[in-house]
Fold this sequence. Notes:
Blueprint: E1 16-22, H1 33-47, E2 51-58, E3 62-69, H2 72-80, H3 89-95, H4 101-122, H5 125-133
Antiparallel strand pairs: 1-3, 2-3
Amino acid sequence: MPIPKKYLADFEEHKIYHVFNRTNNKERLFLSDENQRFFLKKYSEYLTPFSETIVWCLLRNHFHFLIRIKSSEIIKADLSSRDIEFLSASEKDFLKEGITLSELVERAFKRFFQSYALAFNKGSSKERKLILQTF
């Protein structure tokens, strides 16, 4: 089911955005404190180069971030200072002006969500069943 347009916006430099997401069927997003720490670590890894986090909130089945997008100049300077071998395809495309700032941030969020989902799904199904039984 597509996301209604009223919930979508292009990311623009210096603007503030409320980014949130929740699980399907009120399932748990975090099964342990370690899940939350990993989630925030991955968030920082993927999004810190492009945004400043004003505030965040992690809840049982969803999360909220209030972020400000950095300027294109700051992002380009940061990316240019890194070894090109370690840049993602999106970051390389952004430096070549093949994608917009909005696309860069969208792809960073996508990579972040995928990274967490893959790690979460690799977790012990026994642990998940045990935790879900308590609710």
